[in-house]
Amino acid sequence: MKLVFERIKLFKGVFCYSYAMPYKFTFDLSKLPRFFFNEIAIISYQKGMHKAVLNTLKEIILKFRIQEATGLNLSDAVVLLQDLIDLHGINVMQRKKFLKTKKRALFLPHCTRKFMDSRCQAIFDPSIPSYNCKHCSKDCLVSKANRLAENKGYDVYVVPGGSCVPKIVKNARYEGAIGIACGEEMKMSGNVLGSMNVAGQAIPLIKNGCANTAFSLETLQKTL
Ligand code: SF4
Ligand code: SF4
Questions:
Q1: Among the CATH numbers 1.20.120, 1.20.1050, 1.20.1280, 3.40.50, which is that of 101-224?
Q2: Ligand 1 near 108 CB (within 6 A)
Q3: Beta bridge mates, 177
Q4: Of the residues 83, 108, 111, 157, which should be mutated to test ligand 2's pocket, given the most ligand atoms within 8 Å of the CB?
Q5: Reported pTM
Q6: Residue 84's closest CA among 45, 132, 34?
Q7: Binding site membership of 111 for ligand 2 (Cβ less than 6 Å)
Q8: pLDDT tens digit sequence for 139-192
Q9: What is the number of the ligand 2 atom nearest to the C-alpha of 181?
Q10: CA torsion sign, 38 to 40 to 43 to 49?
Q11: Which strand (E) or helix (H) includes residue 15?
């Protein structure tokens, strides 16, 4: 690429030199308000633009070597990325409404427990239905998330599947809910909660597989 020096006037008598890149201008986006990016996410979601950027998604996947890092094939990686964008769009759209809610619950998937066998001391109550974590392992994600959320006034449920969520929300009359699960599972329960007028925030798993799965505690902390 041919680089050309350009003389740019900054203010009275002060000049700087810049490379003339494909853009004919320089910019700094750091001072833009955060809502600008959120608006883009909302509009692109509403207009279904994310579906139309398939080629761009493929480029991003190749650029960041997502396939090598995850072991996914290209089409699976595209589906995963599309779901993550979908969920982010929904989160942004629901955020204001969610923040106004007073009674909230956190739903954790049972697959994020440290143990999936009898070593897990949680007691399952089928009448709710939810596991009640006994905090047997300090490094268990469920235990950590449980403490974080309870300290912020949330009721916490550890559920064996997304289909349990609407029943719990309806019985306890929650206004807001945070759900952690894999993308597909999340979209299904999200649709049902939407129809119940419950403001939802979704946190997708960063590792799935129905056992020894994981989510970001940092993301949860921000979402709470
Ligand atoms: S900390 Fe809780 S969820 Fe994790 S293994 Fe122990 S009882 Fe089960
Ligand atoms: S990985 Fe997904 S489908 Fe499997 S148990 Fe966890 S949330 Fe449910």
A1: 3.40.50
A2: no
A3: 105, 200
A4: 111
A5: 0.76
A6: 45
A7: yes
A8: 999 999 999 999 999 999 999 988 889 899 999 999 999 999 887 778 777 777
A9: 7
A10: negative
A11: strand 14-20
